[in-house]
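#struct-pred

JT: dropping the chains for the assembly here, can someone run the whole complex?
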Amino acid sequence: MPIFGEALRNALQKRATLLYPFEKRAVAEDYRGKVEIDYNLCIGCGLCAKDCPSSAIELVLTSDNKKKPKYYISRCTFCAQCAESCPRKAIKMTPFYELATYNRKAEVVDPCGISQ
Amino acid sequence: MSTAIDIPIGPQHPALKEPINITCYVDGEQVVGAKLRMGYNHRGIEKAGEYQSYIQNLYLAERICGICGIVHSFSLAQATEDIIGKELPRRADYIRTIGLELNRVHSHLLWLGVAAHEVGFDTLFMYVWRDREAVMDLIEEVTGNRVTYALVTIGGVRRDLPQERAEKVLRVMDLLEEKVKKYKKMCIDEKTLRMRCDGVGLLRKEDAIALCAVGPTARASGVPYDVRADDPHAAYDEIPFKVVTYDTCDVTARVLVRIDETLESINIIREAIKKMPSGPIRVRLPRVVPAGEGVGRTEAPRGEVIHYVRSNNSDKPFRWKVRAPTLANFLSIPVMLTSKGDYVVNIADIPIAFASIDPCMSCTDRAIKFVDVNDGKSWVWSLSQIKRVSHGGGR
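RK: done, full complex below.
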């Protein structure tokens, strides 16, 4: 019964799981988390919205009549295609992954509410 | 046969993780026949793909299967590159190979855990899944996410594998090799596991060939069929590896094929890192794909996967067809679940025999046959009939 030896060894070992959310594991160096858009660099070309596979980005007209991307976090699949398509490198992936909320409206990054 | 009672297993059943219906005909404790009915998980992915660009479809393809995602995005990219007809940089091929093999390691370990769970050996399930975390973390490090990798793009790969990360991959491979060897010994020596797996789910070599079984299911029946060796793609033409086959044709053979393949994959990853040339990781290809047809195929952890793409000189495919390996292996299930001569199938063997092909229903479900749920009548529509219906006309 080779499993018994293994089971005994494991009984004396440290627990393999973490007590999330009290203990957190560090994410990998280039982890793809929440998308961050730098609206000062953005030229409103719309390539990110065109390439997004899950329609998480759409272009909206801001108060000063410019087209800027609006980002829906709840639709995002974190593929980083927008960051790759952006010609100005205005979009970056951040390591934030704890994005669950009870309020879906709060999960939108709207350029209209951000002062330029 | 006259006393046979039919037991429906599924579509929702504790022993099955995804919806499928197996109707088993039993005589006492013995299963004398089985019939599969699928189609509970049809998602219309191929049709959705016709409304999206090739770039967007890569991410959609990756979500065909949650376990072997990279296989589908790789095959779709391969089919698209086949139409465009441009050589990729060698480094991209090597990184793709490493991605595919990491995927195989994680998928086979996952299956080993599931198989242990199906025979009631939950201790092994826990241990294997704990050690599988090492490769999941590694995949996160290499590709940026644990499950949906987004590594492959049309014309190459999106992420490079720098030296220090490659060294980390090698370190984890050493650790995994040791663990997997231990599990192999455990699976061979553990009497309880052998009693549940030996002689169960028998698929003879001639049946495997006649029913076009693929992947580990075919190789466990002694058919040395592996797309990586038979039609080398990515960097498989430069990396020597062994096609693992066993000839006992039962669940034990499938367990051992998968464990040996995991060890083989670890060696492929080591070899690929050693031989990886430097240079660019992608070429820029046009977004508009010229009219034509392309095929992409690779060896997924479960068997051969085929993607067919027909383009019409636009940035969206005209037709995209996917054949997932489970579809090919489903045909073997009724044979495995039918008692014949000396071969006896008990009701308790159904879950493990079914799980031994590593079924993935959501990958597989495509509209093939129409069934009227009221009277059980079924029929198949021809392409012209489907076209007429989709254009608003009647049958």
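JT: nice. Chain A touches chain B at residues 1-3, 6-7, 10, 16, 27-32, 50-54, 77-81, 84, 93 (CB under 8 Å). The two ends of chain A are 69 Å apart (CA to CA).
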